[in-house]
Amino acid sequence: WVQEEAPDVLCLQETKCGGSAVPPEVRELPGLPHQFWASAEGRPGYSGVGLLARTEPLNVTYGIGDPEHDPDGRVVTAEFPSLFVVCAYVPNAGRGLVRLEPRMRFDAAFLAFLRRLDAQKPVLLCGDLNVAHAEIDLCHPRANRASPGFTPQEREGFTRLLDAGFIDSFRHLYPEARGAFTFWTYLGGARARNVGWRLDYAVLSRRLLGALCDSKIRSAVPGSDHCPITALLAV
User: Fold this and answer.
1) What is the chain's pLDDT, residue by residue, as a tens digit (235 residues)?
2) CATH code of residue 137
3) Positions of the site: Important for catalytic activity (predicted)?
4) Is 226 a catalytic residue?
5) How many Å apart are CA 75 and CA 35, to the nearest integer?
6) CA atoms in the 13 A half-sphere facing the CB of 204
7) 84 with 77: CB under 8 angstroms?
8) Is 62 known to be catalytic?
9) Which of 27, 78, 161, 206 shows its CA 20 to 30 Å from the CA of 117?
């Protein structure tokens, strides 16, 4: 699927492996020779992201400058001539919301990081942001108001991101689209019944709107409890 899609940049989240453990079929993907991997320090099998690029970035950084969260290997940022591409795997608030407070601290630090980037050049944020922003973004909003990913605090965190001058590309283009989900639990045949959540986003600086061609959810692509999304920009 990746070869058919032929992306200029491929962002992967929750890889659960360090760079040395990346499978050879990923290492050898045609057209994506520049690969950058982050993983959790001392926690194999936890978190992790990867950013693969067709052309070599001008610069690549890891983390967001936050000592609490950077050891988890959640963010890789590649600078290209016309924009930053940020690959992110945002922390889950956890069963029983036991990690909601650390999640809120991450959201605040991450927004500050994105604003610093945006002050330099436009930003495209791609990743599993672990939040369904509005009721339209999950199948059963009423039953999930206290669930990780749909608490008022997490939804407000995403609203603050939008208020800071960033755009949810899919919802900008398709404001009324229902049943547009990117995650389905493995339990109960949820994917076949499309009982899902939209947790994966391509978020961009407002001044990139003129370059936005489309934002797609590739819900037919199997292989994970999430599906890929594709952002198409003319930059």
Assistant:
1) 999 999 999 999 999 988 889 999 999 999 999 999 999 998 888 999 999 999 999 999 999 999 999 999 999 999 999 999 999 999 999 999 999 999 999 999 999 999 999 999 999 999 999 999 999 999 999 999 999 999 999 999 999 999 999 999 999 999 999 999 999 999 999 999 999 999 999 999 999 999 999 999 999 999 999 999 999 999 9
2) 3.60.10.10
3) 200
4) yes
5) 14
6) 26
7) yes
8) no
9) 27
DSSP 69-127: TGGG--EEEEE-SS-EEEEEEPPP--GGGTTHHHHHHHHHHHHHHHHHHHTTS-EEEEE
- Domain region containing 144: 1-233
Q: Tokens 């982050």 appear where?
A: 38
Tell me the one-letter amino acid at 38. A
Please, what is the Cα angle at 49 between 48 and 53, to 5 degrees?
A: 155
Return d(Cα 48, Cα 209) in angstroms, integer: 29
- Residue of 72, 107, 128, 137 with catalytic role: 128
| Residue 211 one-letter amino acid | A
